[in-house]
Amino acid sequence: MSVPETVDRALLTAAVVLIVIAGVGLLTRVWRGPSMLDRAISLDVCAALIIAGLGAKSAFARDPFYFPIMLVLAFLGFTGSVGIARFIAVRDRPKETRQQNGGGK
Known about the structure:
By secondary structure, the chain is mainly α. It contains 4 helices and no strands. It is elongated.
């Protein structure tokens, strides 16, 4: 193995280790998150970590097979975050604003 390949493998291994450490921290935030918003943000970061892990796997294997999967996961993570943010915004809106907009409650 040449020196650039050795450096490449070492950097990819370091990236995978950092992704795993971030995943452990993420799971503790999902488990202990004091609010629903913390848990929602953690799940969005979870999607980003999965995408990063797939990118690292693609780099290790030198195979572009996972790129479309990563793109779909990014789209789903974004739409999920926007949906959760909308529900939280409606839930946390003051009652006076909801009654003015025809919310009724």
